[in-house]
Specification:
Chain lengths: 116, 86
């Protein structure tokens, strides 16, 4: 399953959108734990990616300053909420989000075609 | 980010990671502190996703993006409906 989700993230689609549901459905972990696994497993690979990008000078530093502070605040609120919410309700919210993202995959196909 | 901030794809991706990474570390710490983490599952998944990322980047070049998007879009919608009513 880790391999599968890794394939997904290698393909450029958020691995978590596949990893989290498969953990919840197949191994019966709670929604919170599945989400934490997804977050933590992302850290090592993104550190490597970030170092490569820094070397290639691909990072827009002015953009970071604008986005990082609101990001940190929103992250704290989000994570604290996710911990407090009942696992079943969190699961419902997540599935709604997943549904919208699934639709978005189809919509973005049309956009790519229109651009061409 | 590509749409909202008018950055080039490549730079958008790199800049996104540089912002997401610290945010991920912060929320991971919050999850761990509250006891909502599992070391065993995390290790298995991390190893798996490294192998998977390697395989994924190899097959990426062979399958057209539109096909991948359609397949994943379908999987995501079906899973979402399953989770909603389960």
């Amino acid at each position: 399953m880790g391999i599968l989700s890794g394939v997904m993230s290698g393909l450029g689609i958020g691995g978590g959108t596949i990893l989290i549901p498969s953990l919840v459905i197949l191994t019966k972990t709670s929604q919170q734990i599945a989400q934490s696994v997804n977050l933590i497993s992302f850290i090592p690979s993104s550190i490597v990616a970030l170092i490569v990008h820094l070397k290639n000078n691909n990072i827009e530093k002015s953009m970071i300053k604008k986005l990082i502070l609101p990001g940190i605040i929103a992250t704290c609120i989000g994570a604290l909420l996710a911990i407090k919410i009942n696992s079943d309700i969190l699961k419902k919210i997540f599935s709604l989000f997943l549904f919208v993202m699934g639709l978005y995959e189809f919509i973005s196909i049309k956009n790519i075609k229109n651009k061409k | 980010m590509t749409f909202l901030l008018d950055l080039h794809d490549h730079k958008a991706h790199a800049t996104a990671i540089s912002i997401i990474l610290p945010l991920t570390i912060i929320s991971s710490l919050i999850y761990i502190k509250s006891g909502n983490a599992s070391l065993k599952v995390t290790i298995i998944v991390t190893i798996g996703s490294m192998i998977g990322a390697y395989i994924g980047s190899k097959i990426l070049n062979r399958i057209p993006v539109n096909v991948i998007r359609k397949v994943f879009g379908t999987i995501m919608i079906i899973t979402a409906i399953g989770m909603m009513f389960n």
